[in-house]
Amino acid sequence: MSEKQKIISVVGPTASGKTRLAVELAKIFDGEVISADSMQIYQGMQIATAKPDKAEMQGIPHHLMDFLPPDKSYSVAMFTDDAKRCITDISSRGKLPILAGGTGLYVDSLLRNIKFSEEERDEKLSRELWQKYEEEGIDSLLQKLSAIDPPSYERLKEGRNPKRIIRAIEFFYTTGKTITEQNEMSRLEESPYDAIKIGLGFLDREKLYERINLRVDLMLRNGLLEEARQVLGSELSQTSVKAIGYKELMPYFEGEQSLEECIEKLKRETRRYAKRQLTWFKRDKEINWLYVDEEPNFEALLDKAVQIIKGRLYG
């Protein structure tokens, strides 16, 4: 049996500092970063997605970032294929792959080696379900899911992630089987990766929310309004249209709400997203959690992460 490929995984909610930690770990362990963010893949969506600039990357190569036009859809199956190619390329050059991002489905599907059949999509049904969500709320979707796929309902009801709930419903009606059945079949092959998982959390959730609010304020100072105007004026795919940071500002552009009201909604939606991310990642018992608000500074946090990784790489 061949030795599994070592890979570092840095996860956590938005605004927790994943990018900075991943870059510093790459410098220490001679690695390269693979982004696991479903929105940072898109070109022209820089500010709202908190895409790192050259200064933040510090010369560390970043893969699967800023490569797709926003009118193109992208799936978890595409991500796992692309990420596997990146891991093979990075490791072939003697470097350590470092996966960093907050899209839990991307991270888990890759590291657990979940196999995807050719994904069948029903864009019309997807649009109808999103409209149902906008008009009736998340509970109407959960009720529908509970009737066709109870295990998925139990798994998704707490996180209340509309994208995942809609995908599970759409999958059933397009394939005739539940996404739960598909996931069970796809896990039959063992993962080729030995992942060292680092999670960034907060003991005081309010401190995370403060960081999110400050980040939104910084985004606005850096030109989020103009970026949102351009993005909303272009053709968007069923994937990119879900990005937080643009649709929340639409009522302002249309003269229906004040800028202050839209900014408050953007902050609220971002906080809710962070909560869903934490709910997702907390289920993974293999994650080594580091609490940002427990450490006196970033260096102390970095040192703890380094010690965890060294213990697994060289222990």
Task: Give a description of the structure.
- The structure is a single chain.
- The protein is α/β, with parallel strands linked by helices and 315 residues long.
- It has 2 domains: 5-114 and 190-313, P-loop containing nucleotide triphosphate hydrolases (Rossmann fold); 123-186, Histone, subunit A (Orthogonal Bundle), CATH 1.10.20.
- Helices cover 52% and strands 10% of the residues.
- Strands 3-2-4-1-5-6 form a 6-stranded parallel β-sheet, with helices on both faces.
- Helix 2 (54-57) links the parallel strand 2 (31-35) and strand 3.
- Helix 5 crosses helix 8 (162-175) and helix 10 (205-221) packs across helix 13.
Which structural class do the helices and strands define? alpha/beta
Give helix and strand order, one letter per element, not per position.
EHEHEHEHHHHHHEHHHHEH
Strand content: 5-15%
Largest sheet geometry = 6 strands, parallel
CATH superfamily of the largest domain: P-loop containing nucleotide triphosphate hydrolases
Determine Rg (CA atoms, Å).
Answer: 20 Å
Average pLDDT taken over every residue: 93
The tally of strands reads 6
Structural shape = globular
CATH architecture of the largest domain: 3-Layer(aba) Sandwich
User: Any idea how many domains?
Assistant: 2
- For this structure, what is the CATH class of the largest domain? Alpha Beta
Annotated CATH topology of the largest domain: Rossmann fold
Distance between the ends: 20 Å
Summary keywords:
10% strand, single chain, Rossmann fold, 14 helices, 2 domains, 315 residues, Histone, subunit A
